[in-house]
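Methods — Computational structure assignment.
A single polypeptide chain was analysed. Its primary sequence is given first, followed by the predicted tertiary structure written as structure tokens.
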Amino acid sequence: MAKEVIVKASTIEKRKKRYSKTKIILTIILLILIFSFIILSVIYKGGRFTITLDQRLALDNHIVIYEDSVIKEGKRKLAARDLEFMDNISIDWIPTNIDTEAEGSHNGENYIAYTFYIENEGEETVNYWYSIVIDDVIKNVDEATRVMIFLNGEKTVYAKINSYTNEVEEGTVAFSSKEEAVLEQRKNFQPGDIDKFTIVIWLEGDDPDCTDNLLGGEIKMHMEIREEYKETNE
């Protein structure tokens, strides 16, 4: 005859508690592993890069922006494709024909690239300002961020001043301010003129400020085309 096994209510309760604790511990370990993977694998995360045209320029001066030089579908806002994650690279890894290889979004591995056009369809010569606005920065990732602009084939690279030497990074122009990476004026934009822009954004691995402290960092930026200079607070 089989021996009768008696399980007391207290024993069942203890088992339930052990099971609950084990489940909680396993969940915590899983979350830690996921978080650690994200921290170790992601250096830079960027949102969608957009270009907006000032209403006054569009309506009063008949300035248009578009990304297709054949169709020329004028818009008030253009948007590059998302690049969810970005690791650090060297400027030498960016294709030498980046300004001419494509129109619209042509992102590569670990960099954003976007080409578009501004055209004066009006009857007046105008001046306009173009700026790259810094919307948000996490973990000082802007210290190693580079913004390269081709305007009608002329290349300029912008970077934040070196935090160690307080000098401009070699081969770059210093960021305009804490709020704007770029602030430039295009003068004498005549009727019929077309300006071609290519914007490239990446995290420069050769920058002395590109250290492990930037792991998990994030930066979000957008571009504005406007008629007048807009003051920003330092």
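Note: DSSP finds two helices and 13 strands in the chain.
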